TrEMBL record:
Keywords, sorted A to Z: ATP-binding, Coenzyme A biosynthesis, Cytoplasm, Kinase, Nucleotide-binding, Transferase
Protein family (similarity comment): Belongs to the CoaE family.
Annotated residues for binding of ATP: A12, S13, G14, K15, T16, T17
Pathway noted in the entry: Cofactor biosynthesis; coenzyme A biosynthesis; CoA from (R)-pantothenate: step 5/5
Enzyme class of the recorded protein, top EC level: transferase
An example Gene Ontology molecular-function term: ATP binding
EC number: 2.7.1.24
Alphabetical list of InterPro entries matching this protein: Depp_CoAkinase, P-loop_NTPase
Reactions it catalyzes: 3'-dephospho-CoA + ATP = ADP + CoA + H(+)
Classification via Pfam families: CoaE
Natural source organism: Vibrio eleionomae
Designated name of the protein: Dephospho-CoA kinase
Locations listed in the record: Cytoplasm
Length: 202
């Protein structure tokens, strides 16, 4: 098993951009929780079958894929349904992340988990890297990217761990309030450190 860096950050902090730079410049393998979450409910999976058995065929699109918008509506104001879904999917997602981490070939791997702090998944990583931005930047980027108003953007932020809570869990921090051109120098500094740690922990 490779040395695992848990990469996290709030919405619109730039996690995907940071992960992509690690991959493009240093050939570091990525396991992304959001992608895994889609894989475990793909057509033909036990995850999708369980959701259809629970909610009915109406939860599918015409292509027999999961209709995420409908599922969000079902669980948005219903805490029992949300809890049922989390109990179904979280173990599946965690297991699939372990499977994919076991297939990593780079000296260390990035485990990208947006809700790493909220879901207490820090134990899956050897070290935690937080992409940090001020909340005002998060709000602005979320409103622009997702085309939502400030009220909606604030409610999304309120549902996540606070900036202070994330930073309290961080072993390393990348500052992304200045723009993407400031990321590569910070990542270039972290890469040899992670290589050294991966050798020590083999």
């Amino acid at each position: 098993m490779s040395f695992i860096i848990g990469l996290t950050g709030g919405i619109a902090s730039g996690k995907t951009t940071v992960a992509n730079i690690f991959h493009q410049h240093f050939a570091i393998d990525i396991v992304d929780a959001d992608i895994v979450a889609r894989e475990v409910v793909a057509p033909g999976t036990p995850g999708l079958k369980a959701i259809v058995d629970h909610f009915g065929e109406a939860i599918l699109t015409e292509q027999h894929e999961l209709n995420r918008a409908k599922l969000r509506e079902k669980i948005f104001l219903n805490t029992d349904e949300k809890e049922w879904l989390n109990k179904l999917l979280h173990p599946m997602i965690r297991q699939q992340m372990h499977v994919e981490l076991a297939q990593v070939t780079s000296p260390y791997a990035l485990l990208v988990v947006p809700l790493l702090v909220e879901n207490n998944l820090g134990s899956m990583a050897n070290r935690i890297l937080v992409v940090d931005v001020p909340e005002a930047v998060q709000l602005r980027r979320t409103m622009q990217r997702d085309n939502v108003d400030e009220h909606q953007a604030r409610s999304i932020l309120a549902a996540q761990a606070s900036r202070d809570e994330r930073l309290a869990c961080a072993d390393d921090v990348i500052n992304n309030n200045l723009g993407n051109d400031q990321l590569l120098p910070q990542i270039t500094e972290l890469h040899p450190k992670y290589l050294a740690l991966s050798k020590v922990n083999r």
